[in-house]
Design a protein that fits this description.
The complex is a heterodimer. Chain A is an alpha+beta fold. In chain A, strand 3 and strand 4 form a beta hairpin. Chain A has a seven-stranded antiparallel beta sheet with strand order 4-3-2-1-7-6-5. Chain A is rod-shaped and about 100 Å long. Chain B is an alpha+beta fold. A ten-stranded antiparallel beta barrel of chain B has the order 1-2-3-4-5-6-7-8-9-10, surrounded by six helices. In chain B, a hairpin with a 2-residue loop joins strand 4 and strand 5. The radius of gyration of chain B is 24 Å and the shape is globular. At the A-B interface, helix 2, helix 3 and helix 9 of A face helix 1, helix 2, strand 3, helix 8 and helix 9 of B. Chain A: Belongs to the peptidase M48 family. Chain A: Its cofactor is Zn(2+). Chain A: InterPro entries: DUF7092 (IPR055518), Mito/Outer_Membr_Metalloprot (IPR051156), Peptidase_M48 (IPR001915).
């Protein structure tokens, strides 16, 4: 059997039309100006690659290309690599696709949160605390103003928190910061390094100190789980992966889906923080239902603020799980 | 002056064929904890190179996956050491960063050499013969100066880099030459700046007219400020979207238009609009398909870039082929000392 091929001698760019055939354990290459016999064991027969010509490399730098892939496979049976078999079959590559999707899904659902949790544990407290100072300094210039609560009131609340019995000492906040914000309404949140920020409007909205303590315990649940830090790590990992993957000039576009994907994590964190708060409330002889009452009030206030600002319909991006579900769980405890 | 004959480059790769290669690469890379990624890179490069055809012949890639793996391990080790140190030992991290920065030009030269030595066309290899000393000027000093000058010297630095890489590249016995001066680079960035200014002025006029006719709500006396804000925002978004494809297209056209190989010349005629449309639709499709469109996007972009490049062959095609010979030193000693290391990720 003779196979048409193109030969390059490696010293000149000229293409020589040649034919190939086997002579025992030798390959015979014949053309108008060239004849060569090489032991097959001395040749580098490259595995197939899609529809590209098959390539044989000679030890002296010469090369030979065969466009007839089927003919080549008949001449050199067994030169197919296993990888090439996978690449050329829709069935195997489809299986690879399913495997990759399953692995990517598992990595996102379990691997990433686990890695972020482990990493968050290793980040030194001073580093996280310095991060808090930066975040606060940044926010102070923009949305925060100094608290309008009396120093006595603030000290009283701080003392109340210091007295609390906690199920996990890691939940004790590094510091409690009081701020006033016209834009943010009644709110409280935990920063990555364990600082809890309380806005004046939240203190004013609460009926009594028990309700404030309930919300603060929820935030301390975030502190205990290092949720803010983990969330930050997860979001930056997803953002980085997207930016790298999409590449080119699309860093800005990559940020949007990363944000959407991250919304889900915080729901798990909210549930964790609720559980911590419920345990702590019981330990301090406050009914967990007080947190539910406060959540309801916050939700109403937030809804009012949202309706006024944006109109409804942005609920999909909300980082809080549907409050009804949380309220029911808290009331049942 | 000999006559030049245009020889377009063709790209025969297909998205569906490359998709299978790509997904098998991804799957095996994950399954082997990244080790296969070096072999994957060779398969991918071979796919793109062999489908790139000029005058009836394809290119080829010969990189040794083990060398690529070695390069990746070194890069990963440096990066991991830096990341770990930066959170626990800032002094050590600074030291590692300095080490990375000082090593970078040397590594870049090594990988340029690796890439070009491992690229062939018609059985002849390309080569890179840049020396290390000038590489430190080009890849370290100039970018540093460009940074210190707040980017004012960046086009200059870019011109130095292109001149260094092209002037030290060869195909067989023929050497590449690069003739563009820094002025041409400044021209491209000035045009981008002009586009921004024109866009800003246009938006300014538009918003002023619309605002004064009550198209959007604005308080008395605030119209200028509001128009300024809207125009600045629009210009920012416009440049963010358009500047990258514009600069990419113009730079590629400039670089190829100023490159010669012996008596042969090159012409690239990429259009910024087409490139923008291509990149934008690629990003949208990649996002919508959760990343599965990526191999198709890669193929589309490669096809566009390759098929908008032509070689202007001096004399006849037969003369062209007959004139291409292996370099005197290409086969012997240089190959022997060829450093098998590729840092490029």
């Amino acid at each position: 059997m003779r196979l048409a091929a193109v030969y390059y001698d490696g010293r000149n760019a000229k293409a020589h039309p040649v034919t190939l055939c086997l002579e025992g354990d030798k390959l015979l290459l014949q053309g108008k100006e060239i004849v060569r016999r090489d032991a097959i064991s001395a040749l580098e027969i490259q595995p197939p690659l899609g529809s590209t010509p098959r390539v044989v490399l000679f030890a002296d730098g010469a090369r030979c290309e065969v466009a007839d892939n089927r003919g080549f496979a008949e001449l050199f049976p067994g030169a197919d690599s296993r990888v090439a078999v996978l690449e050329n079959s829709w069935r195997w590559s489809g299986l690879a696709l399913l495997l990759v999707l399953a692995l990517a899904g598992a990595g996102y659902l379990w691997g990433l949160p686990y890695a972020a949790q482990r990493l968050a544990q290793r980040i030194p407290a001073e580093l996280a605390a310095s991060l808090d100072r930066e975040v606060l300094a940044d926010l102070d210039g923009k949305v925060f103003q100094t608290s309008r609560l009396s120093p006595d009131r603030r000290r009283g609340l701080e003392a109340r928190v210091a007295e609390l019995v906690l199920p996990d000492p890691a939940g004790r906040p590094g510091a409690i910061e009081f701020r006033f914000s016209a834009e943010l309404g009644p709110n409280a949140f935990a920063l990555p390094g364990g600082t809890v920020v309380v806005l004046d409007a939240l203190v004013e909205l609460a009926e009594d100190d028990q309700e404030i303590v309930a919300v603060l315990l929820h935030e301390m649940g975030h502190v205990a789980g290092r949720h803010a830090l983990r969330q930050m790590l997860q979001a930056s990992a997803v953002g980085l992966a997207m930016a790298w993957y999409i590449g080119d000039f699309s860093n800005m576009l990559a940020a949007a889906p990363a944000l959407m994907l991250e919304a889900r994590y915080s729901r798990d964190f909210e549930r964790d923080a609720d559980r911590f708060a419920a345990e702590a409330l019981q330990a301090n002889a406050i009914p967990p239902g007080r947190l539910a009452d406060m959540l309801l009030k916050l939700e109403t206030a937030r809804q009012r603020g949202l309706d006024a600002k944006l109109g409804a319909g942005s609920d999909y991006l909300s980082s809080h799980p549907t409050s009804e579900e949380r309220i029911q769980r808290l009331r049942s405890q | 002056m000999a006559q030049h004959q245009a020889q377009p480059l063709h790209f025969s790769g297909s998205g569906s064929e490359y998709f299978r290669l790509w997904i098998v690469n991804v799957c095996l890379s994950i399954a082997t904890l990244g080790i296969y990624s070096a072999w994957a890179k060779v398969r991918r490069n071979q796919y793109f190179y062999r489908h790139t055809r000029l005058a009836g012949a394809g290119f080829d890639y010969h990189g040794d996956p083990k060398a690529i793996l070695k390069g990746r391990l070194v890069a990963f080790a440096l990066f991991a050491a830096y990341t770990a140190a930066s959170s626990f030992a800032p002094t050590a991290a600074a030291f590692i960063l300095i080490l990375i920065v000082t090593l970078a030009p040397w590594l870049l030269v090594r990988s340029l050499r690796f890439r070009l030595h491992n690229t062939s066309y018609r059985g002849l290899r390309f080569a890179f013969r840049g020396r290390i000393g000038p590489a430190y000027l080009v890849f370290l000093l100039w970018p540093l100066l460009a940074g210190l000058s707040l980017g004012l010297l960046w086009p200059f630095a870019q011109q130095r880099m292109a001149a260094y890489t092209r002037n030290n590249s060869a195909y067989g016995g023929a050497e590449f030459r690069f003739s563009a001066g820094a002025g041409a680079y400044y021209g491209i960035y000035l045009m981008t700046l002009m586009l921004g200014v024109v866009l800003f002025a246009g938006l300014m006029v538009l918003t002023s007219v619309l605002g004064s006719n009550g198209w959007f709500a604005v308080e008395e006396g605030q119209l200028t400020a509001m128009s300024l804000l809207l125009a600045a925002l629009g210009t920012y978004l416009g440049l963010l979207l358009f500047a990258y494809p514009y600069v990419t297209a113009r730079l590629q056209n400039l670089v190829w238009g100023s490159t010669t190989l012996g008596g042969h010349r090159f012409v690239a005629n990429l259009s910024a609009y087409q490139l923008l449309g291509l990149m934008l639709s690629n990003v949208v499709l990649v996002v919508l398909t959760l990343g599965l469109y990526k191999p198709f996007a890669d193929i589309r972009l490669a096809r566009y870039r390759i098929e908008h490049l032509q070689v202007l062959v001096e004399g006849s095609m037969d003369d062209f082929v007959a004139g291409l010979q292996a370099g005197a030193s290409a086969a012997g000693d240089e190959m022997a000392e060829m450093f098998d290391f590729d840092i490029a990720l």
